[in-house]
Amino acid sequence: MLELSGYRTEVDEIDRQLMELFERRLEIVGKIAALKEQQGLTIFDEKREEEVHQKNMMLLKNEKLSSYGNSFISSLLEISRNYQIDSLEQREVPLSRGNITIGFQGVPGAYSEQALINYFGNGYKTKFYQEFEDVFEALKYEYIDYGVLPIENSTTGSIVQNYDLLKKYGYYIVGETSIKIRHNLLGLKGASINNLTQVFSHSQGLEQCSKFLKTLPFCKQIAYANTATSAKFVKDSNVATNAAIGSERAGEIYGLEILQENISDAKENFTRFIIVSKYEQSNSICDKMTLIFSIANKIGSLYAVLNQFSNEGVNLLKIESRPVGDGSFSYYFYIDIEGNKEDSNIKKVLGEISKVTQDFKVLGCYKRKK
Fold this sequence. Notes:
By secondary structure, the chain is α/β, with parallel strands linked by helices. 41% of the residues lie in helices and 25% in strands.
């Protein structure tokens, strides 16, 4: 016992020294943040963080501790980055609020829930809904503060329904996040791929795995509301010839086996999600905007709008069109641009565009996730 007590005393002393050094490190980190702000530099410096990580790992003498050392340095860098953000009050508005409720479409295990955790972290109250519009309705009646919704996939393109819902409700994009989509074929324990007759998933999930599904020519593809909902249905159906396309986490939650892993057509498959609020929210760190407008169906009308961005040196990130729906073959345009609504060139270009378009509105000014 004396030997154990002695070790613990030694650990306590090491912890004391660590905390002293920790405080000293963050004090210096805070000064660095202030200098970055004065010089107009960004908080995150990928090259510098890589240098710090590699340099410190080289100081580690015990190779058996490499994985632990990697985790330690990575955590320290993340803490330092967050401290710089907090010290300058540079945090996205949704992340600066406590006691909030967040909604997503699907059930636990959905990619939307994964995106929610990716953006907000754990510890928040969450609600899940069957349809995308249900999330907007929950925002309308303030059952939730934010909704997390998919807007674009790197393989299959835009989720147009959510563009239409943004216009219908007039709500705002206040943040975005992106996650890697890794689809798996999920089935009951003991099920065989050769005996499958039906595969369930969201329509985008089926489309994103079309090459693999061609290897199952006798298997009927059935579109479902959500990938995780599909996994839950297969579990509840208890039919060995049913399978679902979904995430590994969905399989774990609903007790399904992975019959075939990573079946996406594109192995680098990402989906971008937007954080939606009933109210407009932005601050000085926001560097991306989404606009909506309609234009007359005549020659040169779109060019006249796009030329305004070029004249003011504003970078266009994306343009999406959706039919107005009045039989005129006119369109609403959703445009993503780089910049903050308080930037002088942005203010100027928005003023000019509002003169040559109809139904012009800023749908959000938020922080871009690169």
